[in-house]
Design a protein that fits this description.
Blueprint lengths: L1 H17 L3 H12 L11 H19 L11 H23 L4 H11 L4 H10 L6 H29 L4 H34 L2 H5 L2 H20 L4 H12 L9 H23 L8 H28 L4 H10 L4 H13 L5 H26 L3
Helix pairs in contact: 1-2, 1-12, 2-12, 3-6, 3-11, 3-12, 4-5, 4-7, 4-13, 5-7, 5-15, 7-8, 7-14, 8-10, 8-11, 10-11, 10-12, 13-14, 13-16, 14-16, 15-16
């Protein structure tokens, strides 16, 4: 823990020196201490668990900034759908162009459908842009995108293994959509009222920190249920945060501050882990050009796939570009898809390494563009 937090602190120093987002600096610090260079930290189960915890807490605190009605507008579905389909075809055909086999090409396309809410939400929060219209569109579309990525993964596993079934896809869809719907409804109708009633009890008056414990309990419960239906845990914790966003509390309002401090510690470790998981030594020189091309296609297809529907819905050119770039980071979601493919023997180690590096590059590049060009002060 001490070493990981030291690396995170070094990441802040790097970010300060190069005038970039803290996310970029911390990931770079993780690369330096990881297997790629110094080899001081490896991606052990311990690091993985802390990183997972960090992502869950991070999305809970992000969820506290939004009420569910702000990110469940139907127009976000078109942005998410186009932003999943176009990257899939882009990744698949680029992989076949570089002579990857069918299985690898399918999984490469699937990895490109993903969007990491955690990365870009943290960057937008850091820049003070979280309450803007493009940010709300990004968050709303990214939640939907997580469901679409799950469906793409399920379909890809079936196609590659020869067990594809429409019934399985429909069941997966029903579970995912049902969880999000029930989660939002429960949050708005039940949880927001429960926490306000709890706030008026003698227990909360004497021990206001009990509200914080209650909200974090709900956050991890939602995260667990999200994983149970096949979604990312961070979708569940985000919905839990959104459930409490509009709660008016007199005594337990400190729970937001508590969540913020918890997020600072564990989200930093999450970003360190994204750098640590990469090992550039397994990448052969022949794959370098493909990684560069794939990263470019990954970013461009999200910009096109998400930006054009946003423009058609009346958003300005700058806002549409922000939405497209904001959906570009693949982060931990694409890494999870790659790991599933590797563990099931559906892709080889070199394909796995390509997807990890693509995920990392698409995670680092959009925040740099945001800070240096789009939101330049």
């Amino acid at each position: 823990m001490s070493l990981l937090l030291f690396v995170a602190l070094a990441g802040y120093q790097i970010a300060y020196r190069i005038n970039q987002s803290a996310v970029v600096g911390i990931i770079l610090a993780g690369i330096i201490v990881g297997p790629s260079l110094l080899g001081l930290v490896t991606y052990t189960d311990f690091v993985s668990s802390l990183a997972h915890l960090g992502a869950v807490v991070l999305l809970f605190t992000i969820g506290l900034e939004f009420e569910a009605k702000e990110i469940t507008k139907p127009r976000y579905f078109l942005i998410a759908l186009s932003g999943a389909v176009i990257p899939w075809f882009g990744g698949f055909y680029l992989a076949t162009l570089f002579h990857f086999d069918f299985n690898a090409s399918v999984f490469i396309g699937t990895a490109l459908t993903a969007t990491s809410i955690a990365i870009i939400a943290n960057v937008l929060k850091e820049m003070g842009k979280l309450q803007t219209l493009p940010a709300k569109a990004i968050i709303g579309a990214a939640v939907i995108d997580d469901i679409l990525a799950l469906l793409a993964l399920s379909a890809s596993e079936g196609i590659v293994s020869g067990t594809f079934s429409v019934g399985v896809i429909m069941a997966t869809t029903a579970k995912a959509v049902g969880f999000v719907g029930v989660g939002i409804l429960t949050g708005r109708v039940l949880l927001s009222r429960v926490i306000q009633k709890f706030d008026e009890t003698k227990l909360a008056i004497k021990y206001p920190e009990s509200i914080f414990i209650f909200t974090m309990m709900v956050a991890f419960l939602y995260a667990m249920m999200a994983e149970f239906v096949g979604l990312s845990a961070i979708v569940g914790s985000f919905l839990a945060g959104a459930s409490f966003a509009g709660a008016k509390l007199k005594h337990g309002h400190i729970f937001k501050e508590g969540a913020e401090y918890l997020q600072i510690i564990f989200a930093a470790i999450f970003f360190v882990s994204l750098g640590v998981i990469m090992d550039i030594r397994v990448v052969s020189p022949s794959l370098v050009w493909f990684i560069v091309a794939l990263s470019a296609v990954a970013i461009l297809t999200k910009v096109i796939g998400c930006g054009i529907p946003a423009k058609f819905q009346g958003m300005g050119l700058k806002d549409s570009l922000v939405i497209g770039l904001g959906m570009a980071p693949r982060g931990e979601v694409a890494m999870i898809i790659a790991l599933i493919g590797l563990n099931q023997g559906l892709i080889r180690q070199d394909t796995y390494a390509v997807l990890i590096l693509m995920s990392l590059l698409t995670t680092i590049i959009p925040p740099i563009i945001f800070r240096n060009w789009i939101f330049k002060r």
